[in-house]
Amino acid sequence: MSLKIGIVGLPNVGKSTLFNALTRSRGAAAANYPFCTIDPNIGVVEVPDERLKKLAGIVNPEKIVPAIVEFVDIAGLVKGASKGEGLGNAFLSHIREVDAICHVVRVFEGTDVIHVEGSVNPKRDLGTIEAELCIADLDKAEKKIEKIQGGARTGNKELMKELNVMEKLKAALSQGKPAITVPLDKDEAPYLRAMQLLTAKRMIYALNTDEQALASLPLPEAKKKVGLSESDTAIIVSAKLEEELIELTPEDGKAMLKELGVRFSGLDKLIQAAYDALGLLTFFTAGPKEAKAWTVRKGATAPEAAGVIHTDFEKGFIRAETISYADFIAGGGELKAKEQGKLRIEGKEYAVQDGDVMHFRFNV
Known about the structure:
The protein is α/β, with parallel strands linked by helices. The chain has three domains: 193 residues, 3-Layer(aba) Sandwich (Rossmann fold), CATH 3.40.50; 73 residues, DNA polymerase, domain 1, CATH 1.10.150; 64 residues, Ubiquitin-like (UB roll) (Roll), CATH 3.10.20. The strands form three sheets. Strands 2-4-1-5-6-7 form a six-stranded mixed beta sheet, with helices on both faces. The protein has a three-stranded mixed beta sheet with strand order 3-9-8, sandwiched between helices. Strands 11-10-12 form a three-stranded antiparallel beta sheet. A hairpin with a 3-residue loop joins β8 and β9. α1 runs parallel beside α8 and α3 packs antiparallel against α4. It is flat and about 60 Å long. The two termini are 22 Å apart.
């Protein structure tokens, strides 16, 4: 599986600048005026993972294949977008299929970049976007209710159950509460997933500040400034700095970040936040042909991990020959790790661990 993240925010908050930086491209127009992103921009980015490089250094494969993240940047949303204002609402459909949403919130001051509301107010901006997402979802829930309530009245049990879920969602969304906050039973959850509601997705807040504040602004303080709770997933970034890093080599980029007192790039922080929020982990396959990183959800069994590679691997799963990343590196490869008794034979119930180096045996 590959991770897909949609990027939303008001116009001129640094959304497209961040997209350009994350994808190391100039794909999205980043002009100093509202609605400069009209068609959705899509960029595929390699997931930075030093472990894959170290594994490749040992097995010397013909090719190295990192895990990937797909970013989708849509037009800036404005107050009233759900009622036809601006351009953004027309493109919300482009991010209904993403795994998580990155909400870029402007924290930096300054008048050189105009603000669509005329002033910088992170709490107001955050509320504007979240209200528009709720309204868009409410509209979708209401249309679904209209469509199924007739069938539910005839006594169709499946439609009755679905209608009950839709009514719960409508009640919450009407009060400005995200769909993800609605408590549902296990058998009700599929109805929510099928709706692909925006507010049912994991939200990651990218608090866009300037270079000076990047290293000095504590995350809890930044969250408070924006009106987020401690439990909300957020990162502090400087989209402008990330854009400057595009022009540098990876080595020079690291040196620049170190000079500013910043440990990780915005891309590193965003991807890590997304993996944590969605409960994902990485396992590896490594051999002479290919060293590759794979993404699965935490708790995935060995057969499910095999199925990410190929469905036949899951159907005909026999066993997974597994070495932890640390043991693989310490042993200098599979052979030595095996001699040291570090290779484990795992069966169908094994829960894959982050960093596992795996070889699947299967029969079809």
